[in-house]
Amino acid sequence: MILLSNWDLAIASLLVILLATLSWHFRLGLTQRILVAAARTAVQLSLIGLVLKTLFAQTHPLWVGLMALFMLAVAAREIGGRQQRRFTGVWNIGLGSLAMFLSSFSVIILVLNVVVRPDPWYSPQYAIPLLGMMLGNTLTGISLSMDRLTQTAWQQRHAIESRLTLGQSWKEAISDVQADAARAGLTPIINAMAVAGLVSLPGMMTGQILAGADPLEAVKYQILIMFMISAGTGLGTFGAVWLGARRLFDERQRLRLDRLTTP
Amino acid sequence: MNPPPRQPESRLLDVIGLSSDSFGPLCTKLESGERISLHGPSGSGKSRFLRCLADLEPHSGRILLDGIEQNSLPPTEWRKAVGYLPADNPWWRPKVGDHFAAPPQAPTRLGLAENVMDWPVERLSSGERQRLGLLRLLVNKPRLLLLDEPTANLDPVNTERVEALVLEYCEQQGAGLIWVSHDSAQRKRVGQREVDLAELSHCP
Q: From CA B179, how far away is CA B189, in angstroms rounded?
């Protein structure tokens, strides 16, 4: 493995500075944003590197757990922020984070204990990166599906209520909208699996190969990750769609769009 | 699909102190087979009144059908017994017949084609949608019909057909009727009495 020196990174940063200069030259108004974003990349990644290094040095379940909860909280906030029509009150963040917690944590724990089996099973060198990749993808699936669910329920409110007036249960009346929302949440990960290796070389695998791993070993890990992410995203999406649809109806099975904010 | 058990001596509909965040309290009664036509300025809450009767909106007060409290029936059973026809009738499946729990009786009586159940929904005119919306509702054999301007898109011939069918249904089934209409001649034809929504706020 070739180690990078700070000097190497300084040379790489010249590329970004070149981009910023060009932006300034053509008056694109992006110069400041490019420089700030680049600085954030350097600072945020250095900090997370330090955190991980400290974490890896101890392997204490408490710290691993805290780190996992912190990551979950940030992801939950992101889900809440990506909705056009949000559930009012705690439900906006609560629904997404509950679905994400149940799906991603249970799949991660299964993978760590049954497949990868590090010792101890929660050793941060495995648990934290796996969880990070998991949450990043589950987050996308859940936020896409919840956004689609609430938007479509709003657009089709007359059809849903019409079905209720004819005596259908809430489950029947919302079933088409639910299926549509679940499809929206799962499509990105299904597409990613379908083109993996052909169109894109997944980042994790590329990183491992750059770091000197045997490509065949890196591929095995990538397959594991893809399957794990799909399961987590799928279960999280189904959970969020079901919980969200349930929340759209009250105990008398009335469609309660007043439980959503207007965009 | 069975209608709720009827208690012979009780009234068809009792509305006692019905209120929501925008109207009320309202009271009214309907005997078996009784028909009223309802009017009132637009925005006075006629549609929302019907929506509460069908339990589509949160409300307070008591609503009884054949002596049975609204809350004591599952909402699906209640809504089948209280047939509410909103002003617009959405269609959500490609084929007309997919929206019917059972084949309707004689679509030709409303001037519709014999094979209309096989039609794609896009082929329907707004008037055909409205008439099919009524047929779709009658399949449930409701005890009470709540019709919100059901002939708004219809020509005189079809308006007459719809009126005749609804009156016949009420007579044969002993069903009650609340028909919202802006046309005073129609109100006289379909209702045994005409009621202004504002009159319903005189609760005893």
A: 11
Contact A100, A73 (CB under 8 A): no
> Which residues of chain A are under the pLDDT cut of 50?
none
A257 to chain B: closest CA residue: B57
Query: Chains A and B: how many Cβ contacts under 8 Å?
Result: 56
Residue of A nearest to B51 (CA): A165
- CATH number, domain B13-201, options 3.40.30.10, 3.30.465.10, 3.40.470.10, 3.40.50.300: 3.40.50.300
Give the pLDDT band of residue B23 (cuts 50, 70, 90): confident
pLDDT digit string (tens) for A146-192? 999 999 999 999 999 999 999 999 999 999 999 999 999 999 999 99
Give, as one character, the DSSP assignment of residue A90: T
Q: Coil, strand or helix: which one is B13?
A: strand
Q: Is B80's CB within 8 Å of A250's CB?
A: no
Mean pLDDT for B105-133 is 93
Distance of CA A61 to the CA centre of its chain: 23
Cis amide linkage into residue A120, ω under 30° from 0: yes
Q: DSSP letter at A114?
A: I
| Complex prediction ipTM | 0.92
Q: Could you check whether the bond before residue B4 is cis, i.e. omega within 30 degrees of 0?
A: no
When computed from its CA atoms, the radius of gyration of chain B, rounded to whole angstroms, is: 17
**Structure token pair of residue B82:** 């209280």
B101 vs A contacts (CB less than 8 Å): 166-167
Q: At what angle do helices A124-155 and A91-100 cross, to 10 degrees?
A: 130
The model's pTM is 0.88
> By the 8 A CB rule, do A193 and A225 touch?
no
Mean pLDDT of B118-140: 95
- The C-alpha atoms of residue A253 and residue A249 are separated, in whole angstroms, by 5
- Say whether residue B92 is in contact with chain A using an 8 A CB cutoff: yes
Domain range annotation of chain B: 13-201
**CA dist list (Å): A150 to A1, A78, A244:** 49, 17, 8
Provide the residue count of chain B.
Answer: 204
Give the B window 138-197 contacts with A, CB below 8 Å. Answer: 140
Tell the residue number behind the tokens 């009738």, with chain if given. B89
User: What pairs with residue B177 in β-bridges?
Assistant: B35, B145
Q: How far is CA A55 from the centre of its chain?
A: 22
User: Are B150 and B182 in contact, with CB atoms under 8 Å apart?
Assistant: no
Q: How high does pLDDT run on average in chain B? A: 92
